[in-house]
Write a structure and sequence with these properties.
By secondary structure, the chain is an alpha/beta fold. Helices cover 45% and strands 13% of the residues. It holds the Pfam family SBP_bac_1.
Length: 411
């Protein structure tokens, strides 16, 4: 690898090498990820699989971090900031060698100089879904590798819709009509999602805005007013329970799992939970009535790591076909490798893979900015206020349009 880099520099003139030879060490590493929402523990099992086949010299210690996402990001940023300027042995055991990053964090972590740049030839970014691969870059450079794709999907009570003689909704109008008229007959909520004031709300709001013809650049436009207004009127009219304004992934899934909601917007991982529940044969999964937000997680090497060669090998292991297929079959995490969606054995075993593929391929990225943390905070504040007080909707969105411009530029 080092010889290839030297040739590249001298002959091809390709600039600064991606790998710093001074930190090409091998040894034990620490891997940090957000809390594994799946009850099957597939992430821990992948770490155990690595440790079982690797030398103890390159053992991986797995550190699950808190959920929700905002808390996890804050802890990662704090640790990286504390270690800024300290590398290798100087960082000691405090360095998280391999970190899992939400797809919207790449720019912020890369520009803060918290990540080690990755070599393109070694990591093979062209193997991945285009949108996922793009989320791992900043300024044309590769800083991470796509690991778990994600896109919002709609779960519904297929038994109740069948009893009413209707098909699953394919538009927001149909969803609202069914949520408002069918759910009350069974004494349950019409629709739940992640509407608490955290990152989940930004995602849910964007999907509603996109589903009504709006975009993330015009929060005071008609599409944004219609999308956020739909959610706000749902809370006001009662087909979205007011309690949902506190829900995250776990709370919203609990409502659906325990039979208290007709529709649930969440991530595909929930399918495995539902398959193991009393609702096993009484639910369906479909695309949202509009574009989904591209979620998911990339894996990156921290700049402070003294064992970056081991870290990159571990990333190759996590993002390879074997590991991604395991995450898909054990927990329902959509793969980022394009090849797995065409795998005949997987398609036969998992009929819903076609739904996952459509959701991921049609998903849209959230705004990409180094100041995403500031941006999502202003979105969460304004949308949460609007959902709780629909009369303030227009004023909140007008102010949000101004706040987004300032936040996106870091002002």
């Amino acid at each position: 690898m080092i010889r290839w880099l030297v040739v590249c520099l001298v002959v091809a003139g390709c600039g600064v090498p991606a790998v710093d030879p001074a930190y090409e060490g091998r040894g034990p590493i620490t891997f940090v990820d957000s809390y594994d929402l799946s009850s099957t523990g597939p992430i821990r099992r992948r770490v155990e699989a690595w440790n079982a086949r690797s030398s103890s010299v390159e053992a991986v210690t797995y550190v699950p971090m808190p959920t929700p996402t905002d808390d996890y990001r804050a802890q990662l940023m704090a640790r990286a900031g504390d270690l800024a300027g300290r590398r290798g042995a100087d960082a000691g055991s405090q360095c998280y060698d391999v970190v899992t990053l939400d797809v919207v964090w790449t720019a912020a972590f890369a520009r803060a100089n918290y990540l080690a740049r990755l070599p393109e030839a070694e990591m093979g970014p062209d193997r991945f879904l285009p949108a996922s691969a793009e989320s791992a870059r900043d300024n044309g450079r590769l800083w991470a590798v796509p690991w778990r794709a994600d896109a919002g999907v709609l779960f519904y009570r297929s038994d109740l819709l069948a009893a009413e003689g209707v098909s699953r909704p394919t538009s927001w109008d149909e969803l609202e009509r069914q949520a408002a008229t069918i759910a009350p007959k069974y004494g349950i909520a019409g629709y739940v999602g992640q509407l608490g004031q955290y990152e989940g709300l930004t995602v849910n709001a964007l999907e509603a805005v996109w589903g009504h013809g709006g975009d993330a650049d015009h929060w005071d436009g008609p599409g944004a007013r219609a999308g956020v207004g739909r959610l706000a009127s749902g809370v006001e009219q009662g087909w979205i329970p007011r309690e949902a304004l506190r829900y995250d992934e776990a709370a919203s899934l609990k409502e659906f799992l325990e039979g208290r909601a007709l529709f649930l917007r969440t991530w595909p991982y929930a399918r495995a939970e539902l398959e193991a529940s009393p609702l096993k044969d009484r639910f369906g999964m479909a695309a949202l009535p509009g574009p989904a937000a591209l979620g998911g997680w990339n894996v990156a090497v921290s700049r402070c790591s003294a064992h970056q060669a081991t870290a990159r090998d571990f990333i190759q292991f996590l993002t390879g076909e074997e590991s991604q297929a395991a995450l898909l079959t054990q927990a329902g995490y959509p793969p980022t490798l394009a090849s797995l969606y065409e795998d005949r054995e997987l398609r036969a075993r998992l009929p819903h893979l076609v739904v996952l593929e459509a959701a991921v391929l049609n998903a849209r990225n959230r705004p990409r900015t180094a100041h995403y943390d500031e941006l999502t905070r202003v979105v969460q504040r304004a949308v949460h206020n609007a959902l709780g007080n629909p009369q303030a909707l227009d004023a909140e969105l007008r102010q949000l349009a101004e706040d987004v411009v300032r936040a996106s530029s870091g002002r």
